[in-house]
Design a protein that fits this description.
By secondary structure, this protein is of the alpha/beta class. It has one domain: Ribonuclease Inhibitor (Leucine-rich repeat, LRR (right-handed beta-alpha superhelix)). The protein is built from two helices and ten strands; from the N terminus they run ααββββββββββ. A five-stranded mixed beta sheet has the order 3-4-5-7-9, with no helix packed on it. A three-stranded parallel beta sheet has the order 6-8-10, with no helix packed on it. Strand 1 and strand 2 form a beta hairpin. The chain starts with 11 loop residues before the first helix and ends in a 16-residue tail after the last strand.
Length: about 200
């Protein structure tokens, strides 16, 4: 008696098709998850006000991708050597993203430092180096949990504010190449986590 065992071997077309369907399905799930992660409207509005306060006439921020598309004063085209970036942390519940860092460098922004930063409660790092921002560091910033501040190469003036002592988490502070006057406030000695001044 002859016994034959039949073994089913899927053809190559079937395997390729199954692989393609699997990849597309996973991509859709991933895209859907990312697409639902958004920066809250109040933070988007705060960014708009920050841009206005700093003197930007061109501003476009994509709340879905957390990408700063456009910033400018006289043109939407970025100046040579400029750097722009907004970083979000999307590890919060309900797929919510929050702004944790802002970098707007070498855009020749002519405004003032924005007190509206306090409306970004998760913000940790700011870099506004090489603009034309004038005035002083806003007192309102003292209530924030900033780790990194660079206002290098602007037109900030007056005395360095004693309120900087409130930045308990600050590890980096760059005030270089501005028009500050007076002496360094002794209160800076209270910044126990400061590594770079």
């Amino acid at each position: 008696m002859l016994i034959i065992n039949l073994v089913w071997v899927p053809d190559m077309f079937f395997l390729k098709h199954a692989l393609f369907v699997s990849v597309v399905a996973l991509s859709c799930l991933s895209t859907q998850r990312f697409a639902t992660a958004m920066v809250p409207q109040n933070e988007v509005d705060a960014l708009q006000q920050i841009a206005k306060t700093m003197g930007a006439t061109y501003w476009e921020f994509n709340a879905t991708s957390c990408k700063l598309e456009t910033v400018g004063v006289t043109s939407p085209e970025p100046p040579a050597g400029s750097e722009k970036n907004i970083t979000c942390n999307c590890q919060f519940h309900n797929n919510t993203c929050h702004i944790v860092a802002i970098e707007i460098k070498r855009f020749s922004l002519p405004g003032v430092l924005p007190p509206e930063l306090v409306q970004l409660p998760y913000l940790q790092d700011i870099d506004f180096a090489y603009n034309y921002v004038s005035g002083s560091i806003p007192i309102q910033w003292g209530s924030m949990e900033l780790n990194f501040i660079s206002v290098l190469g602007n037109r900030l003036s007056g005395e360095i504010p004693k309120d900087l002592r409130n930045f308990r988490n600050l590890t980096y502070l760059n005030l270089e190449a501005n028009q500050f006057s007076g002496t360094l406030p002794s209160e800076l000695g209270k910044l126990v986590n400061l590594e770079t001044l």
